[in-house]
Design goal:
Length: 331
C-alpha cells in the first residue's frame, strides 16, 4: 500500500504559567492510502491534539516543538500558515466532533459548502452551487436544494454532521481526519455516518485517521489501531492484533471495560485511577501508577516500543519479559 502520512517522534507543547507542558510526547505512526487508522484512548490522552497538530490548527499557546509530519513526502511542520491553508480543506480535511461549533451560525449551508470549492477548485458561484447539491446528495441529505438555503441551527444533529462530511470531502482530499464525529449522535445515525465514511473512503482511495474512545466503532471500521495514553503511543497494530491479542495492560483495560451483552454480570471492569495531569512528573512508564503489573523497573525507566510481530508493537516492559521467555524456550 502507498504511504500517505508519516508522523515521527511528534512533540506538541503548550505554553502555560507553569512552563511548557507536553500534550503529545514522541508520537510516531503512518497511514496508507485506502486505510483507516483508529486512534483510541481516554479523554485527555492526546488524540485530538495529535490531529490538530497534523492540521496545523493548534491554539495560539500550542506549538510543535519536535518531530516530523510528512504528508505525500512533504514536511508539514516547516510550512507557513498560508501554505497550510492551501492544504487544509483541499488535500487534508477534518470532521470535527461537534458540528455546531465548526459550522458558522451566521452563514447558510450553501455559502459554507461553496467556499472551499471556489477557493481550492476555482469554481464560479453557480458551478459551486451545483456541486454543493451533488455533495449533499452523496451524503444522503434529502431535498438538498432547500438545505443549501438553511442555517446550521435549522438542521438536526445528524444532518449537520452530514453537512460537515460533505464540506470535508468537497475537494476530494487524500487524507481525512475524523475527530469523534459520531459521539453526539444516536446509535442509528451513528451507524449511517460510519457506513458513509467507509464507503466514501473506498470510492476515493482515501486515508482516514479516525479518533474515538468507542471500541465498538473501532471494531467496525478500523484497519489498524493506535492506542494512546498520556500523550504517548502505548500499542499499535492491526485491528485483529489489538482485539485478539492485546499486549499492553492499558489496551487490555480498555477492552475489559466495554460491557458485554452476552454476559449476565451487571458489572464490568474499570481501569483504576485517572490520567495524569500534563504538569505531573512521572518517572518510568506513565501508566505504572494505574497498572496492576507494575514493577520497580516500570517505575524507574520508560519502556521502548517492543515488536510483538511484523505489524504489532507494545510499549511495555512486560513485553521484554515475554521476549526473554520465548528466547529461553525456542519452539
Amino acid at each position: 500500500m502507498e504511504q500517505l502520512l508519516q508522523v515521527n517522534d511528534l512533540v506538541t507543547q503548550f505554553r502555560t504559567a507553569e512552563g511548557n507542558l507536553s500534550a503529545v510526547r514522541g508520537v510516531s505512526f503512518s497511514v496508507n492510502k485506502g486505510e483507516t487508522l483508529c486512534v483510541v484512548g481516554e479523554s485527555g490522552c492526546g488524540k485530538s491534539i495529535t490531529s490538530l497538530s497534523i492540521m496545523g490548527l493548534l491554539p495560539s499557546n500550542g506549538a510543535i516543538t519536535g518531530g516530523s509530519i510528512l504528508f505525500n513526502d512533504e514536511e508539514l511542520t516547516t510550512k507557513t500558515e498560508d501554505q497550510l491553508r492551501r492544504l487544509r480543506g483541499n488535500q487534508i480535511s477534518m470532521i470535527f466532533q461537534e458540528p455546531m461549533t465548526a459550522l458558522n451560525p451566521v452563514f447558510t449551508i450553501g455559502y459554507q459548502l461553496r467556499e472551499p470549492l471556489m477557493i481550492h477548485r476555482n469554481m464560479t458561484k453557480n458551478e459551486a452551487s451545483r456541486k454543493a447539491v451533488e455533495l449533499l446528495e452523496e451524503v444522503g441529505i434529502p431535498d438538498p436544494v432547500k438545505k443549501l438555503k438553511q442555517f446550521p441551527h435549522e438542521l438536526s444533529g445528524g444532518m449537520r454532521q452530514r453537512v460537515m462530511i460533505a464540506m470535508a470531502l468537497a475537494c476530494k482530499p487524500s487524507l481525512l481526519i475524523a475527530d469523534e464525529p459520531t459521539t453526539a449522535l444516536d446509535v442509528t445515525i451513528q451507524a449511517e455516518i460510519l457506513d458513509l465514511i467507509d464507503d466514501l473512503k473506498r470510492d476515493m482511495d482515501m486515508g482516514v485517521v479516525f479518533v474515538t474512545h468507542d471500541m465498538g466503532v473501532v471494531a467496525e471500521i478500523a484497519d489498524r489501531v493506535m492506542v494512546m495514553y498520556a500523550g504517548e503511543v502505548v500499542e499499535i497494530g492491526n485491528v485483529e492484533d489489538i482485539f485478539n491479542d492485546p499486549q499492553h495492560p492499558y489496551t487490555k483495560g480498555l477492552l475489559a471495560s466495554v460491557p458485554n451483552i452476552d454476559e449476565e454480570s451487571k458489572t464490568f471492569d474499570a481501569i483504576p485511577g485517572t490520567l495524569p495531569n500534563l504538569n505531573e512528573k512521572i518517572d518510568g512508564c506513565r501508566f505504572h501508577p494505574r497498572c496492576p503489573f507494575a514493577t520497580d523497573k516500570c517505575r524507574e525507566q520508560s519502556p521502548p516500543a517492543f515488536s510483538v510481530g511484523e505489524t504489532h508493537q507494545s510499549k511495555c516492559w512486560l513485553q521484554e519479559v515475554n521476549n526473554n521467555v520465548e528466547s529461553a524456550n525456542p519452539s
